[in-house]
Design a protein that fits this description.
- The protein is an alpha/beta fold.
- It has a single domain, classed as Ribokinase (UDP-N-acetylmuramoyl-L-alanine:D-glutamate ligase), CATH 3.40.1190.
- It has 13 helices and 14 strands.
- The protein has a ten-stranded mixed β-sheet, with helices on both faces. It has a four-stranded mixed β-sheet with strand order 3-2-6-7.
- Helix 1 crosses helix 11, helix 11 packs antiparallel against helix 12 and helix 12 crosses helix 13.
- The longest helix is centred in the middle third of the chain and has 15 residues.
- The two termini are 35 Å apart.
Amino acid sequence: MDFLTKPNIAVMGYLCLDLYPDLSENRAWKWEPGMLREVGSCAGLPGGAVGNTGLALHRLGIPVRLAARIGDDLFGRTLTECFHRALPGPAIHLKTGADSSTGYSIVLNPPGQDRMFLVHRGSNDALTAGDAAEDLLDGAALLHFGYPPLCRRFAENGGAELRELFRNAHRRGIVTSLDMSLPAPGSFSAALDWPEYLRRVLPETDLFLPSIDELTLMLKPTEKEPVLRLRQMADRLLGYGAAVVVIKLGKNGLYLKTTGGARRLKTLEPLLGGNTESWRDREYLAPCRSVRVAGTTGAGDAAIAGFLAGAVTGASAAEAARLAVGTGADSVTRTDSVSGIRPLADVRRRLEQGWEKNPLEFASGTISLL
């Protein structure tokens, strides 16, 4: 079976060129106005949901197709060259606009400190549902979209653009998946009514995979105890219409809760086949696996790739969650987001051999640990 006819995952959404200045020798820095510091060399790699999750899936061994917008500029040409080095030509669906610049991020990752980002959305604001060409979805088992807060057309109008994209996928029997990002303070997306947005888009979203920080900002949960807060937010999202909710917890791993409704879960049958019962009414916490951390940029996107790779290869909900934290752990062993990721079979093997878990920073309560 050739590339064009294999079941695959289509990844669409925010794409940028991530610029990584090497700050590894500068442990004593204080970030002050007017400072001048020497740094190491700067790497430029595909980033955002399309660059990180898309290439992570490829490294896991899952056929992917990628769709995004770039500008007719140096950064756009660099991204195109990077993708063509990694993927077969039919996988790449980049639309070039002459009137906008390519999105980019400057990733500041000082040793011993949390990373910081300087982000330019650029051509991502012009992305539309119409950019999902028919051949992008041909043979796809799943369509994953990432970062509506950084893609203006997909954030505005109550998510109408995203609903159109996902409805078209559902008409073709394709399962849908959604990742978020934090709205930047002062940006257009910071002022949007995110609970109303989620009410509108989650009925068309089968798998919803946001981070704890994003959900806390968007939903403003009232529960203080960590497990009760996770359950409160997940139940709210399932009530809005999602079938599966995965909440990324950073160094605490991830939390998974799925619908108990057999009718809602039927939407996943094209992906899961007869395996849907192992996804029904499940709740798990999957702690991070123990590794030496070099950098955390893109770790959440890598975890999503592991989860989706598990789902598309017949895993149960529990196994998909374990594959997510395993892939995320591999990701952080390198300063970039994808070069540490190994084939899916290797991740499975290490998990089966008893990969050590990091301790949770809160009590798990009655939730099963994976």
